[in-house]
Amino acid sequence: MKSFDQLWMELNTKVAANDETSASVKLVNQGVHAVGKKVVEEASEAWMACEHEDKDRAATEISQLLYQTQLLMIASKVSLDDVYKKL
Fold first, then answer.
1. Domains and their CATH numbers in the chain
2. Does the predicted model carry a pTM greater than 0.70?
3. Cβ distance 73 to 32 under 8 Å?
4. What separation in angstroms does the CA of 85 have from each of 16, 20, 59, 78?
5. Tens digit of each residue's pLDDT (9 = 90 or more) over 13-63
6. Cα distance between residue 49 and residue 44, in whole Å
């Protein structure tokens, strides 16, 4: 298990290193549009899991949405501080 901040650091490190074995890095390298499509997909899956499945499945889908949202932030060059200022 890792925290939101730990995941953020891990993803930023992989992207900065341009880790070619990472599917996440490959997705970020495709740009905001590609990552954004993935966010939309995960958002709908999270919604449906919350509506129709158990808490564990909902948590899984929400975690995937958070993961993809962080990739979108990285692809868009939006930092955690940028987001925290808006919370």
1. 4-85 (1.10.287.1080)
2. yes
3. no
4. 24, 32, 26, 11
5. 999 999 989 999 999 999 999 999 999 999 999 999 999 999 999 999 999
6. 9
